[in-house]
Known about the structure:
Elements: H1 14-27, H2 33-38, H3 40-49, H4 56-75, H5 84-94, H6 119-129, E1 132-134, E2 137-140, H7 144-148, H8 155-169, H9 173-186, H10 192-207, H11 214-230, H12 233-237, H13 240-249, H14 255-271, H15 274-283, H16 293-296
Antiparallel strand pairs: 1-2
Amino acid sequence: MFPLSHTQTFGVTIDRQIIALLLTVELAPELPQNLLVQNLPPLLHVLFLNMDRTSEVLYTSCKTLLANLIHKLVSRDTSAYPIQDAARTTIAMLTADDDTSLWSKEDLNLDVKILQPLESSLLLGTLVKQHVHIHTIPSFPTQVIFLLSPICHKLVEHWSSVAHVWAVSCTSSDHASRSLQTLRALGLSLNGQVLVDFFERLVHCVLEEEKKPQAFVGEVFLTFRCFIEDLSPNGLASFPQLAWCFVILLACNSEDEWRHAAQLLDLCATRISFEQIRPAVIDMAKKWPQFPGVHSL
């Protein structure tokens, strides 16, 4: 079920996915606690990717497994920290007999002209780390990260790493898009490798002549916008490649992609001055050996 490296891809039929998830739901509660904790980041990522499946078997299995994980890892431990009431509230919400997914599955290609997060993306983010109010559910007064971080050391960092791998290697544009949404919810910080990986995947999508995953392209641009908005002007100036890649993307044939690149280039220009970026450009290597994609464009 899980990509293991940047060179491996996720290509699995829905039948195999359902079987694998059902087996995981049955086996996970019986695993030793240390083994569960060790595999918690990929387990959580799989669950959050499938919370909006149209298949009742899939989203019900995901809610059941998340409830079982919280029950086994949190609610039974009465000595570590006083959050058992929050755990019980969360389990009750997840096991409620309402036969509904936690949020509606949207058409990810419905509107890629406007660079705005989907409603389900916002709900996913709040379920990851904030208080949630979802449709008929009165409240969800707890956080998955709040509940499980004390048990799994560096949960956010490890979960972000899993989501990063899925976002750049997953052959399903739906799963890759949801992985990017999860990354934004977790607050992934920008570094050189992340920049290389995301632009490389973006270039492959831009160059795709047929069946271009427009929704995924929009999610990549949204992720870059979050990077730009979260960085300080000095931090943004240390990544001059970001603005230059948006300049390169102005040469693409797609009107939507050109518009997104122009918007982000304008955002970069309003956040930093040429005087700020000049030292970074001078110190930057003349070539970017880790990223050959600019030459393809």
